[in-house]
Amino acid sequence: MSGAPPRIHRVLLKISGESLARRGEHGVDPQVVAEIAREIAAVGRLGVHVAVVVGGGNLIRGARFAEFGTNRATADHMGMLGTAINTLALQDGLEREGVETRAMSALAIHEMMEPYIRRRALRHLEKGRVVILAAGTGNPYFTTDTAAALRATELGVDAVLKATKVDGVYTADPALDPHAERIDRVTFREALDRDLRVMDRTAFTLCMENDMPIMVFDMFQTGNMVRAVKGEPIGTWVVSGE
């Protein structure tokens, strides 16, 4: 890996709740959390400001509960509490790596984390702390993808890094189509026209309207997050223009 300085000064990392569990399992696996924390810590040591939004699907999916009759607002609030559990796990993992962190929540959970206040979050980032953002937007009917797009815009990051278990965006589902090809770079408009499902539509539109680049990459390849902020050719970039 080259010693070139990172091309990104501030980034928002979006990781799914499932990323904190072993493949095919549920819950939070401490060893997986430790692996993710090491990757984030390596980026922070480059001097890059890092904010993180983590989902809660490894514990509960509000939309899934709503399908079985639970009030949607109630189900989504249950999902937000799942993200808070994951946030605390990731905070602990980062602190074990010697990284100073702040957990901030869109819901009031004062005994465990700070309330999300944009100016306070910016100050934490400026001081080199990793800021983990829990509870989505704090509103039902919005996904953590949308929360990531919103917080990225509010905090003035240079890009959203969307961590997945595949190495980018493909022309089709690579698990189902052996002829699917990875796309290295695509515009927002092209992604919409080709129905490439990078993020949910609300999140994607918010990024497009605010000229917020998105990098989709495989976080479970050691060193990939560092490679992404250094501008190395991994994953798929979604950008506003050619």
Tell me what the structure shows:
- With 242 residues, this protein is an alpha/beta fold.
- Helix 1 (30-44) packs across helix 3.
- Strand 1, helix 1 (30-44) and strand 2 (49-54) form a beta-alpha-beta unit.
- The two termini are 27 Å apart.
- Helices cover 36% and strands 19% of the residues.
- It has a 9-stranded mixed β-sheet, with helices on both faces. It has a two-stranded antiparallel sheet with strand order 7-8.
- The radius of gyration is 17 Å and the shape is globular.
- The chain has helices at 30-44, 62-67, 72-96, 118-126, 144-155, 188-193, 201-209, 224-229, and strands at residues 10-15, 49-54, 101-105, 114-115, 130-134, 159-164, 169-170, 182-183, 185-187, 214-218, 236-239.
- It has a single domain (10-239), classed as Carbamate kinase.
Q: What is the element layout, followed by pairings?
A:
Elements: E1 10-15, H1 30-44, E2 49-54, H2 62-67, H3 72-96, E3 101-105, E4 114-115, H4 118-126, E5 130-134, H5 144-155, E6 159-164, E7 169-170, E8 182-183, E9 185-187, H6 188-193, H7 201-209, E10 214-218, H8 224-229, E11 236-239
Parallel strand pairs: 1-2, 1-6, 2-5, 3-4, 3-5, 6-10, 9-11
Antiparallel strand pairs: 7-8, 10-11
Helix pairs in contact: 1-3, 5-7
